[in-house]
């Protein structure tokens, strides 16, 4: 089984007359693609289009050459897909095992023994095997998120679409989730949305979404490097034309934009790169790739 080939070409999505996605291109096979953007940037909409929940208004999305606009192909895509929506709900009354077993039936894992083995396999993967008999209602928020991951990876999908999997989790749970996501990178094409630059750093490729468009596609290192020579610190208040600035704990100002002559340049981070890319003027701008 090989990771799915994912191809988006000039994807557009509108709600009423409002454009939410405009000319989105993306090509991936294997590895992790993190989609980074502010609240409302269109990440969930993009992921829902890839997961065949929403139909784009323009452009094409193909998965292994299959086009979700055709019903037979859409069914085939869904067989290859694992999807973790932002607001996944479980029946609180059922046990952890039963909740997954039910979803495994929906994923067409018909043989009872195979299904049981696969359910326990994914529970192992996410560290919830010893909770298999507990009601879902007794799980903590982080455990529920891991249960969500378990259902997403059930059936070994070759395309994994994860909408903010680490949202609201404490640092330990975030780390665990990142580990589970990272494990998939060799067997699936993984698309993960986040608004946190730290989480975006797990991507082999980071896609920055801002103002409905892709502003950057490339490695986390390249995103950080894109801010080289445009990140500096100073004691004085930032100049008025600075793109972004904030006061550090030591009282100095970290500034992004066009540095004044003699500025004290510092090594940029992925966050610096993101802030510069996302705040660049739209007119005449070409995405960096
Ligand atoms: N079904 C819908 N009908 C109308 N507008 C919608 C719908 N879904 C999303 N939108 C709008 O589209 C825009 C993008 O929303 P989306 O949820 O894709 O952003 P996001 O980047 O995932 O945000 P967040 O980080 O807050 O989850 C928002 O302005 C939102 O209000």
Automatic annotation (TrEMBL):
Looking up Gene3D superfamilies in the UniProt record yields:
P-loop containing nucleotide triphosphate hydrolases
Instruction: Give the record's keywords alphabetically.
Output: ATP-binding, Nucleotide-binding, Transport
N-terminal signal peptide: none
Q: Name one GO molecular function term.
A: ATP binding
Which ranges carry the ABC transporter domain?
6-236
Task: Answer yes or no on keyword Cell inner membrane.
Answer: no
Tagged with keyword Transmembrane: no
UniProt family annotation: Belongs to the ABC transporter superfamily.
Q: Provide the protein name.
A: Putative ABC transporter ATP-binding protein
